[in-house]
Structure formats: C-alpha cells, structure tokens
Amino acid sequence: MKEQKLSEEETEIEILNEACKEISLKNKLTEELKAKLQKKLPKTFDEALQLVYAKRVKKYIFKPSCRVLWVVSGRKDEYQVIPEANFCSCNDFYFRVVGGKKKLCYHLIAQKLAEALKIYEEKKLTNGEYEKMMEKWRGKIKKAVC
Question: Measured between alpha carbons, how far is 20 from 36 in angstroms, rounded to an integer?
C-alpha cells in the first residue's frame, strides 16, 4: 500500500514535470495540457495557476554566487520552494504531503508552472542579503515544526 502511494506521488510529480517541459518548449499552456493537469491535480492545479497569473511567484538571484531562492506568496504567508527537491516550507506540505494525505502543495505546483511559463517576479540581490533571507526562512521553519 505504501509502495503504491509512493508510485502515485512519483507519477503526479512526473506528470507535472513533463507538462512543464512541454509548456517551456511551446512557450504556453495549451487547453489540452491544462485539462490533463486539472484532471490529475483537481483542486491544487487551479489554485496554483491563480498564483502564477497573479504574479505571486518570486525568483531571487544572489550575486556573485548565483544562488537562487524561490518564494511563493500563498493565502496566509510567503513560502520557500525548492523545486529540485519538490519541497515547500508551508504547513500543508509538512502535515499533508509528508503525511501522505496529498501529493503536492499548490505552492510547489505554482513555482513549477511559473518557471515554465516564465511568469514570475525576478529580483537580483547580493550574497549578504541571501544570508538575511535564509535566517528568516530558518526561523519560519522552526516555528512551523515546534
């Protein structure tokens, strides 16, 4: 049973990643692909797409290191998203995704869609500002877990 859940999760993530590759290549989200994603991610896809079109996804690039930090503004707060790890700092991720009740949170879906569609706010900052931002995120994670 647990193996089946993991397989379903991978499939959902793979479908999203493949869709994002297709979006990047075509430079748009086709109606066919949108319908497929709505079917596979019924509630979260629409919420994520709303965040993208509302330009609530931010990409911070720190110089000179070229570190990247993705932040998504949700309903209640801003959340750090690490797309390579399929990770989000929101409570939904901690309690439902990690707990196996959901496959992905909508912040993570929004980041992936925003990057593929190239619809996000980009900010260039210094490496010193990176450390300040990471202190903020470390504090949020500690508060969320305690």
Answer: 12
